[in-house]
Amino acid sequence: MHQKGMIHMSLDNNNFTQNNFEQQRRRKAENFHLNIRDNYDDDGENGYSESDELNSYSGQDVKDEIARQSKNALKKKKKAKKKELKAKNKHNRRYFRWFWIVSVVTVGAMLSVFLITGMNDLLAINRTDSTKVKIEIPENPTLDDVADTLAKNGIIGEPSYFKMFATVTKSADDFTQGTYEISKNMDYEAIINYLLSSNNRTDTVKVMITEGQNVLEIANTLKENGVLSSTDKFLELCSSDKFDNDFSFLKAIKNGKDRYYKLEGYLYPDTYEFYKNEDAESTIYKFLNNYEMKLSEKQDVSGYDKLMTVNKLIEDSGSEYSLDEIMTIASIIQAEAADVDDMYNVSSILHNRLSADADMGVSNLGLDSTKFYPYRSALDVPKSEGKNYTSKYDTYNKAGLPAGPICNPGMDAILAAINPNDTGYYYFCHDKDGNAYYASTIYEHEANLEYIQ
Question: Are 283 and 222 in contact (CB under 8 A)?
Fold first, then answer.
């Protein structure tokens, strides 16, 4: 009885527990709620914000539906943006197309005008005035300088087109300084050809280089006459091997480093026509070309019944001296002799002393003209050289000929050096009037010196 009561109580408790659990489940189901925002936030993940709540008791189907709706909404938004961007691009393409067409038409029109006016100017179609104008092309001119000068003087009308033409024809870097008288009706090709020819320059100056001038004196003469703006480049070139490949007589010189100026003796004295502010190199070429021409020019030489060139005269004379040594002897003759007749006797004395035996005591030529070279006298020696300046050409201290010529001799001195008089003299001197006195011995020479004092 007691056990039955216990069993019955146990069953009742079990039923109560089940009923109680069922009631709780129903209550929770009734309390189930789902918070879903009606409007999706673009910033929220999957179309809703993190604040949206989904009860843990929601089913998987509800979650999938929400995700699908969010994905569709995002897809629609992207599609709308893409459509909007496409429309915008289409508008931009239309605008660009019109802009491109307008630009092409504008540039084409401008280019056509440029080409037409340029061609007219190139061919001088509209320039009928044949008046000549004087123009000055500056030193070391650029293409801009030339074009501006031509335009300012009414010779061309389109500087840009002229510069383009000069560049295409490879003439842009060939213009040089000068004064020209040029017609205003010339086409571009004629203008360029005219300016590139030095023969058309009018800024010329005639300069006379006298026999016996040395390199320093010639440089100063050229500067004084406006041929050179500075003597520096000229003197530098006179000490160089720059011209050896063009002139065999210079290439034959082997002791160039022992000389003050390698070109001394070869700047032939004459009257030249130079351009103002001429290039130093072209100036020297004029001297050397003239000297080379003189070597091949036939001369009337005493003792010969036909005209002789210098080269032929040296060959026929059987001289033991080279052309360079002849030029050195000639330069001394030019510096020491009083006149042409005196030149042949001075030449004889030099040849006699150079070939004399050493025991005669005349090996040193003892010439005043060599003491201060490359300067003319003690007064011409720069202070920077010091008071006790000694030339390495000084023939009082050096036996034989100096290393090279001491000045630039004329043709008379050159011929005298090749063809001296036949005398027994070893000494000479001159009085203040230029009268010459010769002697065969030192005693006679000292007597002559005493006489002329």
Answer: yes
From CA 317, how far away is CA 295, in angstroms rounded? 15
Q: Which helix (H) or strand (E) holds 135?
A: strand 132-137
* Residue 305 CB neighbours (<10 A): 6
Supply the pTM of this predicted model: 0.70
**% of the chain at pLDDT higher than 70:** 80
Judge whether 165 and 188 are in contact, CB under 8 Å.
yes
Residue predicted with more confidence, 85 or 351: 351
Residues of the chain with CATH 3.30.1490.480: 132-200
How many CB atoms neighbour CB 161 within 10 A? 20
pLDDT digits (tens, 9 = 90+) for 98-128: 666 766 666 666 656 556 776 788 887 888 8
Contacts of 218 (CB under 8 A, 6+ apart): 209, 267, 408
* Long-range contacts of residues 424-432, Cβ cutoff 8 Å, at least 24 apart: 424/352, 425/345, 425/348, 425/349, 425/352, 426/349, 426/352, 426/353, 426/356, 426/360, 426/362, 427/349, 428/336, 428/345, 428/346, 428/349, 430/338
Q: Which of 158, 150, 164 is CA-nearest to residue 195?
A: 150
Q: 213 in helix, strand or coil?
A: coil
pLDDT tens, position by position, 49-74 = 444 444 444 567 766 777 777 777 77
pLDDT band at 6 (very low <50, low <70, confident <90, very high): very low
β-pair partners for 183: 132
β-pair type (271-275, 132-137): unpaired
CATH number for the domain running over 206-296: 3.30.1490
- Using CA atoms, how far apart are residues 43 and 52, in angstroms rounded to an integer? 13
Q: Tell me, what's the pLDDT at 348?
A: 98
Question: pLDDT, tens digit, for every residue of 409-424?
Answer: 999 999 999 999 999 9
Distance CA 221, CA 228 (A): 9
CATH entry, 132-200, from 3.30.1490.480, 1.25.40.10, 3.40.190.150, 3.40.250.10: 3.30.1490.480
Query: Phi/psi of residue 137, each to 5°?
Result: -90, 125
Percent share of the chain, pLDDT over 90: 62
The pLDDT score that the predictor gives to residue 9 is 46
